[in-house]
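Bug: token stream looks shifted between consecutive jobs. Job 1:
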Amino acid sequence: MERISVTIASRQDDDRNRMAALLTEQDGFTVASIAWDNFGIVRSAMTRQPNVIIMDFFLEDYDTLRLIPTIKRNSPATELIVLCSPEDHIAVDRVLRAGVSGYLIKQDLDRLAFAVRSVFCGGLYVSKTVRMQAFKYFSRHNIVKTPLCDANAIYNVFTPTELQIFHGIILGHSDSKIAENLNISTGAVRNCICHAKKKVGLQNRTQISLYALSNGLITWENDFFEEKKGVKNGS
């Protein structure tokens, strides 16, 4: 089984130690490095290129969101999870708009391993307590632009299979898990995502999933696959 390498960056000793302990006590994770500031994050991205970086939303030496493009340039394959306190929940829209794949509230650290696996597999993870807020923000401000004229047109542009794939991404499933649920190949899952992005002019699977959420095509609920179990591949 492939091990997931992780860089942890937090200004709080207790948070760093707890996250490192939570990951190292489970199989499948390697803590590649631990950082105290944004400089340490960039250095890790450049020298170690971890699979996932977990970083505080507020670090003292530089604005975290302005740093994200630098991290991505130096380590394009690295996925990012931003760690926030409950009082910082207003940052969820800024974090997702910046292209981060994970938004984890510190009180939800027991979900850390799941969140890391989710973003490593190409999924989107948002702590449950702020999911509705994230959805409402993207709907209200139309951050994911809708180039189509009405809800029926939006629905018709996607196949049933594509909608199920988007929901799997939202739930944090890996491509292989989505493929298993839909009885298709992993390659077919990736091809569907690629085609769907081109249909609406979006750049990545996080954006396409938020697009589907914002337009009411999928929800955060966990019963989508059960409800759609009888749906065959669309075209």
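Job 2, same session, no restart:
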Amino acid sequence: MRIRTGVLAAVIMSIALTTSGCGSPESPDPAPNLVGDYARSTTVVNDRLAGTGGSSGDRMANIAAYYSPEQLQARLLSAFPCDTSAPDDSGHGGDFFDTHCDLTRTVLDGVRRVGGSDDKVAGRVVLVKHEDGSLELLTLFVAAGRLIDTNGKTYAGLDDFRENNDLLSSDDVMRAPRNLTAVPGEGEVVTVYGHTRSPWHLWALGGIVVVLLGAALLVVLRRAATRSRRAPAPTDQAAPGF
């Protein structure tokens, strides 16, 4: 029983195209302008920038008076020495950035586990857009070259955080330095999903792909067998003489 070369090529091409889409993308495409969204929003959770009251237009005008888009991103994403004194919101200008850190016992336990010192903890925020569209400045901490979150979990860097954190989902998007443990944080800034997708999603998708392609191949084989049975049998003919 034969299957036409064209049919086999189509099946192989289908497998290649389908499995090539099974990977987990690191970044949304196109990437949203999270810094622009931040400048327009008046409802940013845990916002640390002063002068952000009033309407969206008032907020944008206030921010533009002090920062270019590049300067705003640098101000938001740079690490800062943690201030553990009581927060004081009085008498500050519109460019004031709150560096207060809530160093709970849980956070300090994480700091000590990585060999850090209680009085040498840097704070850093990452700009997050959650699945529901809400914006947040999520506070993380850096000590002894490691990253610590508010639950006391520790990470080697951005990739480790995205794979193992319990704070963000794979549908959240974050804007952060690629080198998340750098202090103060120069270097590449990236927009990535807040969490890598769980491997079981990929296995489930792969299983569905295999079942669908197997069913399609079975249909092709049955049709080829049916055509073979219906074809007329060849007749014996004497070989032509010379």
